[in-house]
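Self-study notes.
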Amino acid sequence: MNALYPSLQDRSVLITGGASGIGATLVENFVAQGAKVGFIDIDAGNGNALAAALATGARHEPLFVHADLTDIAALKVAIEAIRASNGLITVLLNNAANDKRHSIEETTPQTWDLGIAVNLRHQFFSAQAVAPDMRAAGGGSIINLGSVSWMLKQGSMPVYLTAKSAVQGLTRSLARDLGPSNIRVNTLVPGWVMTDKQLRLWVKPESKDEIAKGQCINQPLMPQHIASMALFLAADDSAMCTAQDFVVDGGWT
């Protein structure tokens, strides 16, 4: 059973990329805490289905807003819709990303820019958009999702690895600038999480052998493990945690 965090009840929470994978588990967990959850995703089918499935019995029905996060103007409109419905946003989970495999040779200026847009750029502009809310509320928590992949020197996705390494620099920059307003900024760094997408596209028998050798705890890393850390970082229990990297990877790195 998950811990209950009273400080999350009725809090306005924004989750990007919340329609599937880790993001959907984040949405489910914050709704279960009684938070007012708004989530954004390009996948309208899964987003609407998740919101409907979680509405029954929820203290606050989750709000799904369809938007392409690589379009910053559309992102700002989506955030405004969530603010208008749920009030000042005081928790932001910058979760959206796409770890599409790609080689050095096939990378073009266009695919480079797109990779940065989907894996890094929206994190900054989401934080920029909610920072005034958090200042007005007296504080808040921004949680940027990183990845251990660049730490492990994984190949076959140079743009993704570059973007994910930059997330930790973004976290430290925002933490310094926003700290005087009691806004905490941390990086939640997952290992190889066994989402449906990973299992369908990337996790092969040899991958499982690699995981077994790398992790100190030889058990599947699940989206719930990431959500449990996210709840702590969003709640007042982590009040003096900022500018830090919280790695949840079974001891791989």
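Second protein, same conventions, sequence then structure:
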Amino acid sequence: MSTWEVALVREQGIEFGVVVVQDHVLNNPNERESLVSLWASELGRPIVLMGGRHHKTYGRKDIVAWLSGVHPSRLPWRKLTLN
């Protein structure tokens, strides 16, 4: 089992999730695509990955653009566990 920091957001009629990952994951296309698919399947909504240290984002362009104007501390974070 692994525990992740996840924010479930509803904004402008779109529900999506933001999942915190280690920064190096965002530089690895296979790893980031695998995590996006895993979490989208798990949560049933689009997913954006966010680097834990530098807050760089990866995912749907419209969601990434919206997140660029929001400080991460304003997101509704919770811990979720995957089996």
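Instructor comment on the second fold: The chain has one domain: 2-82.
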